[in-house]
Amino acid sequence: MGENGENTVVNGEGAQQQPDTAAQQQQTEPTTNATNNTSASGTIAGNGSNGQGAQQQPGTVNYDFAGVEMPEGYELSADEQGRFVDVIKGMNLSNDQARALAKYGTEYASRVVQGVEQLRAQEIAKWGDEAKTALGADLGKVQGLCDTACRKLEAMYPGLNVREALEITGAGNQIAIVRAFAKLGELLGEDPGLAAQNGAQGLNAAQGIAANMYPKTDWSRYK
User: Fold this and answer.
1) Which pLDDT value is given to residue 61?
2) Between the CA of residue 35 and those of 15, 27, 42, 43, 74, what are the distances in Å?
3) Nearby residues of 162 by Cβ (< 8 Å), 6 or more positions away
4) How many C-beta atoms surround the C-beta of residue 11 within 10 A?
């Protein structure tokens, strides 16, 4: 019994030690795994999630737009450069990237303006086609009367380029303007006395105003 009792105690102690050892291992292994996981998170997952190692701090690049090719008639003024930098701030663009983006932006703006001008030209041309259709056989006669009106007006008011105004604005193709100028040319052409009187009065008035505004200008050169 004594030997069996001692054996029982030894076996019991042995049985008790094994769970204790397993428990210690269970307590140790999670700690080791946690340490390993923390290390992995700090090198790959951590940096991959917040990008601290790859990002560049905003505002550290001194952008230089000197020499950037611009479309004809465009320039990137100092004020516009400042506004552009405010827009790209925080994008972490390099100087070369910023210059390329600025160049593309002005080229795009130029294309937009050209597109608007083309649409405007098409609209003016459409007005002309509609006016020609409306005037029909009287087109030549109406054009002659409009020419008379333009010459009379330009004689009344030196320096007034009526034809240029009609061309630039496209009003010269608007049927309402065409008919109005034709009527004016008819009235001035039929009454030379009225045209001369109005022309003299208009000329004197225009010269008087011009002389007051520009006293040092020799207006005789423009007669």
Assistant:
1) 80
2) 31, 13, 11, 13, 60
3) 149, 150, 153, 154
4) 11
Write the pLDDT tens digit of every residue in 96-125. 999 999 999 989 999 999 999 999 999 999
**CA of 43: how far to CAs of 31, 38, 223, in Å?**
19, 9, 86
pTM over 0.70: no
Q: Give the per-residue SS3 of the chain.
A: CHHHHHHHHHHHHHHHHHHHHHHHHHHHHHHHHHHHHHHHHHHHHHHHHHCCCCCCCCCCCCCCCCCCCCCCCCCCCHHHHHHHHHHHCCCCCCHHHHHHHHHHHHHHHHHHHHHHHHHHHHHHHHHHHHHHHHHHHHHHHHHHHHHHHHHHHHHHCCCCCHHHHHHHHCHHHCHHHHHHHHHHHHHHHHCHHHHHHHHHHHHHHHHHHHHHHCCCCCHHHHC
Phi, psi at residue 30, to the nearest 5°? -60, -35
Neighbours of 47 (CB within 10 A): 13
Identity (one letter) of the amino acid at 62?
N
What are the two backbone dihedrals, phi and then psi, of residue 96, each rounded to the nearest 5 degrees? -65, -40
Q: Residue 140: count other Cβ atoms within 10 Å of its Cβ.
A: 9
